[in-house]
Write a sequence for this structure.
């Protein structure tokens, strides 16, 4: 692949087929952590700005963004610099032709990685994100908590989804109706 004028030389996009060989990543959490129910456990999902990777036994400086799905429940948040072992999740194209991996790539996310259940995640440093984004995410969480305090849970979840963009809190049956109406 020829080098791009827009991507730095150490960008993970240049790894192409070797991206499956990444075993450890270090980076800064670059968005709010979304908690999802996955079977009987809760899954955390977040974007990570990569700073360093371990590939085929060697550590190397790297840049780029990946999506991380994380089972262990740690007190991590936007702006934390973390280091953890990972395995790449291979995504398949759905029957309706939707290619989730291509969708993520168009948003600058170069892959989806899963932290194995028994892996440790080391928080190297806190507050490494942009201070204004950190305050806005805190404000959004605080407002959502106020809705939960004064409204029934289902109303609070719908309000948080509509007003604050916290769609993961929207009840499943309402999400289904919403997506059905969009088709």
């Amino acid at each position: 692949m020829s080098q791009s004028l827009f991507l730095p030389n150490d960008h993970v996009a240049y790894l192409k087929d070797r991206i499956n060989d990444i075993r450890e990543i270090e980076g800064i959490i670059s968005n709010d952590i979304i908690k999802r129910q996955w079977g009987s456990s809760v899954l955390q999902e977040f974007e990570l700005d990569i700073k360093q990777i371990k590939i085929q036994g060697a550590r190397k400086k790297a840049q780029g963004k990946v999506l991380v799905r994380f089972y262990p429940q740690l007190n991590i948040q936007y702006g934390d610099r973390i280091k953890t072992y990972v395995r790449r999740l291979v995504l398949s194209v759905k029957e309706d032709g939707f290619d989730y991996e291509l969708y993520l790539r168009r948003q600058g996310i170069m892959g989806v990685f899963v932290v194995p259940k028994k892996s440790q995640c080391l928080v190297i440093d806190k507050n490494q994100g942009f201070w204004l984004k950190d305050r806005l995410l805190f404000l959004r969480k605080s407002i959502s908590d106020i809705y939960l305090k004064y409204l029934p849970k289902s109303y609070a979840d719908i309000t948080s989804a509509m007003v604050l963009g916290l769609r993961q809190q929207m009840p499943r049956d309402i999400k289904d109706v919403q997506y059905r109406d969009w088709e």
Observations:
- DSSP finds four helices and nine strands in the chain.
- Strands lie at 22-29, 34-38, 41-55, 58-61, 65-70, 81-85, 87-88, 109-115, 121-125.
